[in-house]
Amino acid sequence: DSQPHQINIRLVGSHPLWAHHLWNASKVFASFFDKNPVICKNKTILELGAGGALPSLIAAANGASKVVVTDYPDKELIDNIQHNVDTNHLGENVDVQGYIWGKSTTGLRKAIEPKTTYDVIILSDLVFNHSQHHAMLHTCRELLTPKTGRVYVFYTHHRPHLAHRDVEFFTIAQRPYDPHADPDDRDVLGYGFQVDHFLQEKMNVMFEEDPGDVQVRSTVHGWQLWLP
């Protein structure tokens, strides 16, 4: 089915974790999955920090075997994601969980038993959380299937003056992984990923009133990460 999918998304009215916006990155994710359904078909998929969960819902609509949708374990956020799953009648292969990045992945593994790792991990507009780069990468490293699995990281530089901090995510991701490294030594800690910046797409700027270059603020970047 090459037709784009019609998905209805309800957003949380107003939320300190920005879940009340449908971000440009999630729209680009949706069209990326619709154009490349083979990425999702019969695959296990995890979304971190899902917000309205549009990429997850499109992945489910494109035939994923299991989609696990997570966001911060806040009742309003999680109930809203569940509402979006139920409204779009995608529930049978979709599991919604509260999850804090970097914490125990037991519940996320249980959801895909007998498998133990995910084929695809979705990070949609999360790299502006600079303090959470290590936590996100820690979870991705634990849960991604080596060699064939992919982490897709789509984002916009909403604050152009901090763009260099956003892309530090990929520098940290590429540093060599040492299982015995001190987890508190953030300057050397690495995760052993290969990275590829493979997509740039112009969208409308989301926040007209924000400072900084409009071209930068309206461009969505797409990266893929994998474990060799």
UniProtKB/TrEMBL annotation:
Q: Does the keyword Methyltransferase apply?
A: yes
The Gene Ontology biological process terms listed for this entry are: methylation
Judging by the UniProt lineage, the source's domain of life is: Eukaryota
| Classification via CDD domains | AdoMet_MTases
The record's GO CC annotations read:
cytoplasm
What InterPro entries does the annotation carry?
Answer: EFM7, Methyltransf_16, SAM-dependent_MTases_sf
Q: Which UniProt keywords apply?
A: Cytoplasm, Methyltransferase, S-adenosyl-L-methionine, Transferase
UniProt GO MF annotations: methyltransferase activity
Q: What protein is this chain from?
A: Methyltransferase-domain-containing protein
